[in-house]
Design a protein that fits this description.
The complex is a heterodimer of chains A (113) and B (114). Chain A has strands at residues 4-6, 9-13, 18-24, 31-37, 43-50, 55-58, 61-66, 71-76, 85-92, 101-103, 107-112. The termini of chain A are far apart. In chain A, a hairpin with a 4-residue loop joins strand 7 (61-66) and strand 8. In chain A, 0% of the residues lie in helices and 56% in strands. Chain A is an all-beta fold and 113 residues long. Chain B is an all-beta fold and 114 residues long. Helices cover 0% and strands 53% of the residues of chain B. In chain B, a hairpin with a 3-residue loop joins strand 4 (31-38) and strand 5 (42-50). In chain B, strands 2, 4, 5, 6, 9, 10 and 11 form a 7-stranded mixed beta sheet that branches. The chains are: A mainly beta (113), B mainly beta (114). The A-B interface holds A 31, 35, 41-45, 48, 50, 88, 92, 94-106 and B 2, 4, 31, 33, 35, 42-45, 48, 50, 55-56, 58, 90, 92, 94, 96, 99-108.
Chain lengths: 113, 114
Amino acid sequence: GEDVEQSLFLSVREGDSSVINCTYTDSSSTYLYWYKQEPGAGLQLLTYIFSNMDMKQDQRLTVLLNKKDKHLSLRIADTQTGDSAIYFCAEGEANQAGTALIFGKGTTLSVSS
Amino acid sequence: DSGVTQTPKHLITATGQRVTLRCSPRSGDLSVYWYQQSLDQGLQFLIQYYNGEERAKGNILERFSAQQFPDLHSELNLSSLELGDSALYFCASSVAGGPGNEQFFGPGTRLTVL
């Protein structure tokens, strides 16, 4: 079945870049997503990438997709303490009615000042 | 604020009981999704509805059921509750059209089964 794997923890210093990695198994996934969950809050979509793209940049966020290796990464430039949260990678296949997402277990990003 | 509302925020109940969780999607969204987040299983997709009809099923137990009403709000019913059902239950909604089908998540309902 489909599976999404992420490393569980990442610790960086404020101002450094953070890179969160994810691997997925479903080669038919059309979209891949990064969600952020702050303590006690719901999930917030950060960005997504269509499977025919290699890279997407959005301000401090850069998503890289290696479709051959089924590897997705999220780079956060100039990481701030406010970026401390759990980051979830998710894969999904869009259909006419929407997309059921398969999530990884989440990477806890800890940013120290 | 995503525009998705869930009630109640917290629910404490006993094993064997039945509870109903409610979700109101964003205005204009036709599709509703339910997810369960627990420490051991992580975030798991349970079920999806689109305009009142069930569209996709994930790891949803037979003791759980859901429905989407004509006004598009949805309810998730959990019965014969077990300790392991304690989790955060999220509802999400999407327009269900166009690229990306972005899902907007509600704040969740925290269920504690004692």
